[in-house]
Automatic annotation (TrEMBL):
Superkingdom as given in the UniProt entry: Bacteria
Protein name, UniProt field: NIPSNAP family protein
Signal peptide span: none
Organism: Paenibacillus sepulcri
Lineage of the species this protein comes from: Bacteria, Bacillati, Bacillota, Bacilli, Bacillales
Domain called NIPSNAP: residue spans: 3-97
InterPro entries the UniProt entry points to: Dimeric_a/b-barrel (IPR011008), NIPSNAP (IPR012577)
Amino acid sequence: MLYELRIYSVHAGKMEAMNARFANHTIGIFKRLGMKVYDFWVDQEGHSKLYYIMEYNDMDERNRQWDVFGQDPEWLEVKQKSEADGPIVEQVEKIFMQRAGYFQR
């Protein structure tokens, strides 16, 4: 399995919009497209950051899923409407991981 940690740095004052977009739209789009969210976190130290991990079989699957997501009509509409007052996300950091063989969950 391949895991992708995605860290979103959110523009000042846009965290509520970011959380609403994920809660009301993005997670549902992920599910509809067969994208698996492994876990999700909000920052507890006052930083405008959101963290989540996606799970894939391999990098090819990951790339295919994000290509489909990026062209999805519902996603494009949601993104456009949610950014009517300006961009929400300042930066996305992506870290690719594989579970250590000695750890069993």
